[in-house]
Amino acid sequence: PTAPPMRGCIYANCVRLALLVCAALALAFGGGAAEIDRDSAFVGYTEKAGASSLDFKRFVITTSYGEIRITPRNDISPGIVGLIAAVAKQEKCATCRFYRHEPASENFGQNGFYGPPYALLQGSLQDITDQPPFEGSPVVQKGDVCLIPNCKEFFIATAAHEEWGHAHSVWGRVEEEDHVSWDVINAMPVEPFTTITDGGGITTRWLTSNVTMPFSIKTE
Length: 220
Prior knowledge:
Helix content is 12%, strand content 27%. The protein has helices at 23-29, 78-88, 179-187, and strands at residues 11-13, 18-20, 59-63, 66-72, 97-102, 120-124, 144-147, 153-157, 169-173, 193-197, 203-207, 213-214, 216-219. Strands 12-5-6-8-7-9-4-3-13 form a nine-stranded antiparallel sheet. Strands 1-2 form a two-stranded antiparallel sheet.
């Protein structure tokens, strides 16, 4: 089985084609459970025509481990980029925090193995004012920065995730050649963690509260 990134919501697993309930995650992290229409999570990738130009080149996430630079994907997810830019331009985010970091094993993606662990760095952007739309959803590649549907949670893919199909809006990218950003991601803790197993037998890892990582976000 494969596990989608999720927190405090009901989410569709594109491989198992079943709804996974995150009530346990809501209890663990203080989120409320909300439903997401399964069909809406599988909207195919579409180019967004007429996306407005940006007055910045990148988002910069600053953590105690250093900076992660993200190239915005305004070409396919302009609505999400605009909402995140509004938060970034305030240069403060009281709720911004990384709380899940599952490493990419050496054999991830080989012979049908897609975890656990699930190869992502996941965090929250709860300071976004409006519910983000579902937008451009190509198959997730390593470095893609994605929003979880019907949530204000996001993740950075640390490996390719073809097993998730077109289930996530991609709003940015950590470029492969940006070794500084990847060094920061790789330096961030993956433990200690607690585990949660859902009704389908999928076990996910969640960092304990003492190692979750607050961050700020800005544009440049």
